[in-house]
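Subject: mismatched residue count in predicted assembly?

I count 308 residues in my input, but I want to confirm that the predicted structure covers every chain. Input:
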Amino acid sequence: MSEIPLSHVLVLASILFSIGFVGVIARKNTLFILMSLEVMLNAVGVAFIGAGSAWQQADGQVMFILILTLAAAEVAVGLALLIQMQRRFKSLDIDLLSKLKG
Amino acid sequence: MSSSASSLSQTQLVMGLNSLQLMFYFAAALAIVASLKVVTGKNTVHSLLYLVVSLLAVAVCFYLLGAPFAAGLEVIVYAGAILVLFVFAIMMFGLGQDETLSAPQAHAFKLSNISLWFGPSIIAALLLAQLIFAIDNSALQEKLTSNIIEAKQVGILLYGPYLLAVEIASFLLLAGLIAGYHFAKPEGVSLDHNDLNQQKETGGHS
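Triage response: the counts match. Full output below for your records.
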């Protein structure tokens, strides 16, 4: 049994998640959106680790490792797309992508 | 007599519990502040530094929650590998020109240079002090080691019931690798089928 109550860990995770969510919604620079996405994924990791610690099970850390690989793959694809966007539009403004081609 | 002794031990317990909890709340507050700075920042590099500090603070939280393996992974993979990827991307974008044009350039260069690393380094120093305190404090260490989840258990689970998930994660990483290569490729070197066929033909002729 962990010393820190699970509810407090979940409060921390939800605060971090909402900060990241606001960043994803409100920012216009695509790089900041990706960073906020990282914050959100990290918050989910906090929730998993907290739950695993509360029940003394290693499953939480397993899920955290899976989230880690997910974040790595997501960042690789996202940054490659950003490089492509910078090359085409000479800017990282997400509003430039609001029109579809064709 | 016995009641006073039990109350003493109880207060000791409460004190020790409080120190662990206080450290957790402090690291959590640092993580929240750093995340807020990430989201509200104007300069890309500042935000990136604050993101590193936020991840380090969350790693301290993991350590205090009894998951040192996850804390190490957080530092190595998140703050070490993924953030370096961000740094490389920012270098390719030319340091976020559209965000820093309004900043004073020449005469205030030194000052802005300090303000770049001052806030993140303060938070990182606070986290380091907290970690040193946690390692030095034997009562806290005892409490931490009592509810630790070892890397061995995680590994047994990963290669036992979660083997399929590990395989799927490896597929995901492969897909990320291929997609990253494909999207980040320069425009000129598109490898479509005609090029490949021509290369094969010329190879066959020579």
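Confidence is low (pLDDT under 50) at residues 98-108 of chain B. Marking this ticket as 'not a bug'.
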